[in-house]
Write a structure and sequence with these properties.
single chain, 406 residues, alpha+beta, six-stranded antiparallel beta sheet, two-stranded antiparallel sheet, 9% strand
Length: 406
């Protein structure tokens, strides 16, 4: 979107106009008003002022972040670069966020210098890497790759570099799926799940099948079981024969979900982060006694429900799934698999999301597992209750987004 900078005197008006949809900004705007900040010039002067209260300068960063389409990038970037020199870690982080929101090319080299400075704060290095996705520039790739493969560098920074890398050779990601660090394997699986949109990742099928089957390990820094992250990339390859394209050849993405009696994905990460903050050892919630599913029983139930079902997908994943199936829909395909752990059900569909919800509701009706959760891929879980309808599940999933679940 083309930027159109507001007149210098319009700062307060711009803030007022976005408050109905960005109410959080009031918390930052009020201290600025009390300080007498009325114009964009006032705002930029405050950002440059090393003697000013760091909280006020952070508030100024938030205004820039929120009004990124209105601010004059040529005037805003220099004071933000000055704020990068602050010894206040939070202000430094906010300045990084603001620069990334402005898509500033002038910020590239300072952020790259921060990222590669091994004496710098790890959190700030990771924050700078997090901002790189807005500044996709091939000049960054050699440095990102060096950090990723440097076993002596900070694990947190290496993981962030891998998370926000792009256009690395597929062979690199395959190699990293065998890395000693579960964090690196986790983000390698993530990248393959993202990169399928612009390149063919099918060469990684065997490595992903191995990872999705056997890598039941947790990252040290952040995330969930590695094998769970690998499902997404693996099933992109398995689903290729059913992919849809528009008249111009653009790929229609399909949806994915997990049904599990366990706390998984973002819900699991919340549990672990809580345990870390309380200084407790990381401990996974126990697996319910009723969790295990017989492949023979499940096949029988699937055959009873869907006459047209097939148990021979074009590209099976023999290590990952005990049972695989393909269900033709009126407006798409539903593919599924029972993970080798005997309880995880992975679903992929290029039809409406209701196809996934309908399967989950049906499975809740035949499964003895309690509790049982539906995961709209990596999001928090929705508990599947007995007698739940498709409409109720749809509303519950929508509610996760409406309340901004994290």
């Amino acid at each position: 979107m083309k930027r159109r900078a507001s007149p210098d005197s319009q700062l307060l008006q711009d803030i007022a106009e976005v408050l109905p949809t960005h109410s959080y900004l009031e918390e930052y705007a009020e201290p600025l008003r009390q300080r007498g900040i009325q114009t964009y010039s006032d705002l930029y002067t405050l950002l440059r002022d090393e003697q000013a209260d760091p909280d006020l300068r952070k508030a100024a960063c938030w205004v820039v972040i929120t009004l990124d389409k209105q601010v004059d990038r040529r005037r805003a970037v220099p004071p933000l670069l000055a704020a990068l020199q602050s010894e206040d870690k939070a202000l430094h982080r906010h300045a990084i966020y603001a620069l990334s929101r402005l898509d500033s090319r002038r910020a590239l080299q300072p952020l790259l210098a921060l990222t590669t400075d091994r004496q710098a704060d790890e959190d700030l290095r990771a924050t700078a890497l997090n901002s790189f996705w807005r500044l996709h520039d091939e000049a960054m790739l050699p440095e990102l790759r060096r950090i990723i493969f440097d076993e002596t560098d900070s694990l947190q920074v290496r993981a962030q570099a891998l998370q926000w890398s792009f256009a690395l050779p597929i062979a690199d990601y395959i190699d990293l799926l065998s890395n000693p660090s579960s964090d690196i394997r986790f983000w390698a699986a993530y990248r393959l799940g993202e990169d399928f949109q612009w390149c063919d990742i099918s060469v990684a099928f065997e490595a992903l099948d191995r990872t999705a089957a056997f890598d039941h390990n947790l990252p040290q820094v952040w995330g969930w079981h590695v094998e769970r992250e690998a499902f997404f990339a693996l099933d992109h390859i398995r689903f290729m024969p059913y992919s849809k394209f528009d008249d111009e050849g653009n790929y229609f993405s399909h949806s994915a979900a997990l049904i599990s009696p366990c706390v998984e994905y973002w819900s699991l990460t919340d549990v672990f982060q809580g345990q870390k903050q309380q200084g407790r050892p990381i401990q996974e919630p126990p697996l319910p006694d009723s969790a295990q599913v017989s492949p023979e029983w499940l096949r029988h139930e699937l055959e009873r429900r869907w006459e047209a079902i097939s148990f021979e997908p074009p590209r099976p994943a023999p290590n990952t799934y005990l049972l695989e199936w393909v269900i033709p829909l009126d407006d798409g395909t539903l593919m599924g698999g029972l993970h080798r752990d005997g309880y995880g059900i992975v679903l992929s569909s290029n039809g409406p999301d209701e196809a996934l919800y309908a399967f989950a509701v049906w499975y809740r009706g035949i499964s003895e597992a309690d509790p049982l959760y539906y995961y709209d891929w990596a999001d928090p879980g929705v508990r599947l209750e007995a007698g739940m309808t498709v409409e109720a599940l749809r509303a519950a999933v929508a509610g996760l987004y409406n309340r901004g679940a994290t």
